[in-house]
Amino acid sequence: MRPRHAVPDGAHLARSIHALPGVGMAAHVLQGRGLEILRMRMDQPALILVDQGTKTVRSERGASARAKPGQAIVVDGQQTVDFTNTVPEGVAHYEARWLVFDTALLEDPGYQARAARLEQQHASVRLLPKVAAPLASAFERAAQALAPDAALPESIARLRVLEVLHWLLEQHGVALRVPQAHADVSAKVRALITGRLDTEWTAGRIASALAVSEATLRRRLVAEGASLTQLLVDTRMATALTLLQATTQPVSSIALSVGYESPSRFAVRFRQRFGFAPTAVRGHERGAA
């Protein structure tokens, strides 16, 4: 069953997150005010089309890009980035559409063969100063194909998202690389808990799921400069931020979905992580940081 998050509230834009395991995810992001979002982990690559406002992405690897309406940014996976979404005077809100590519899709033999034959450019963050019509159309078809009511076989949805990768390659010379097979323990923990964030995760449960001892798990995380507490909080807060931006779910429902029974406790943790309140994402004055 394809997951979908959407609670209509009369907003002028019906927003939701559509995901298909092994293929990708589509999201329509709306943000009521400009915000800086630091240290966001991108395990999978994404294509971001900016419709209103501006978006700046800065990679831990030193690359950066700033996109205006009608432009796009390609963000590679397996990296940590900073996002700055701005709302210029006279503009109602920041708005962008995301397409996230599942790592499994990048392993498509046809795509890999074509990428190997073409001269290509690779960067951790890449600006597309102009989104060509074929790519824009392919993006829309892919987003629609990922919707749970699309009435399309998963094989067709996969082809439509794969088409976007091919247009990026053919028109813009952008090839997305398959992440290294030996993913670090931090990535394995994030992959394990994502989608089950309301679970009472303990070190023992996570270690058991990864088939290692608790001591080994903690030792490997320390070697990567991480901790279980940090990973749990970051993954929960990152998911909460996405739900605030890309759905119309109430804050209380989002808090529950990421493992917080108390909305007030969730709000405190969210502010500690990002520096602004959950309500600020949707432009509520009382949420101003």
From TrEMBL:
Q: Which domain of life is it from?
A: Bacteria
Which InterPro entries has this protein been placed in? Answer: Homeodomain-like_sf, HTH_AraC, HTH_AraC-typ_CS, Tscrpt_reg_AraC-type_HTH
**Keyword Transcription regulation included in the entry's annotation:** yes
State whether keyword DNA-binding applies.
yes
| Name of the protein described by the UniProt record | AraC-like DNA-binding protein
Q: Which UniProt keywords apply?
A: DNA-binding, Transcription, Transcription regulation
The cellular component terms of Gene Ontology attached to this UniProt record, alphabetical and capped at eight, are: cytosol
One term of GO molecular function:
DNA-binding transcription factor activity
- Domain HTH araC/xylS-type per the UniProt entry, residue ranges: 187-284
